[in-house]
Structure formats: C-alpha cells, structure tokens
What we know:
Elements: E1 5-9, H1 14-19, H2 30-35, E2 40-43, H3 45-48, E3 66-70, H4 77-87, E4 91-95, E5 102-105, E6 108-111, H5 118-128, E7 134-137, H6 144-156
Parallel strand pairs: 1-2, 1-7, 2-3, 3-4, 6-7
Antiparallel strand pairs: 5-6
Amino acid sequence: MNSIKVGSYGWEFASFLQSFYPQDLPQEWRLSFYANEFNSILIPAELWCDSSLDIEEWLDVPDDFSFYLQQADAHCDERLHSVTQLLGSKLKGSVNLCSETICIENRVAIIESQQQSIREWRYWLEQNADDLDAIFLKDGDLSYQQLNDFKSLLELMGL
C-alpha cells in the first residue's frame, strides 16, 4: 500500500510566515523549505496559471514530492501544457474545489476545515484511507501545527 500524501492548498499562509518559515528565508525558497516537511502540494489555479511566475523554481523539491493542480478555466489551457511539461512526473493530477467541508475527487481529498478532533479524523481516515492517494488541508487560517498534526496522525496510523 502506498502512503497517503499530505499537504496544503498553497504554501503562503500568514501563520506559516510567522511560525514556520525562517524570517530571512527568501520567498522563492519557501516551497523548497515546505517540501522538507510535507510530501505534496495542491497549487491554486491563480498561482499556476500566472505566466509571470517561474515554475522551474518549484522543481527544487525532493524526488518523491508530488504536485497537484487545482483545475482552472479554459483560459489557462496553454499554460497548463507548459506547467505539465515542466513538472513532469512530479505532477500527479488535478482536482476541482467544491463548497463542501470535505471533497473527494480522483482519489484526492480536500479538507476545508479541521474542526474535528484527532479521534474523529482517525475514524474518518479508517473509513476512507483505502480510496485516497492524497489529502490537502485548505483553510485560510491553516497553521503549520495543524498540518503537521494531520501528517503525524497519518504516520501513526501507518498510512
């Protein structure tokens, strides 16, 4: 059984800037720093669609790191082709966001809020883990500690 990848929706959270990233870390190195702790990222459409960004900077991550893209409108189709080529085998898929607290699509879960207790998340994982390749936490107030706790829960469960 492959382990479930865990990450966040983006990597530029205010709380991460305050308590996770070193203050003197250049912005272009943040994803690499993030990738030392977590094994995947769900990239928001507005980010990967931005043709002014140098996506090659994103490739400074471990070999087993996985990228997922939020699906975008047709206006990003040309950019999607170049992003797909640049990310190569590190690109594992794309998913839509939904308005639900938990969305599962293409073996990927996106969790909007972490209001449940660790015990409730454990029960949820016991019910859903076999159907998942990746889990992304998506919350504007997401803290490093929340993401790390969720990663630790997966590790303790052997997932």
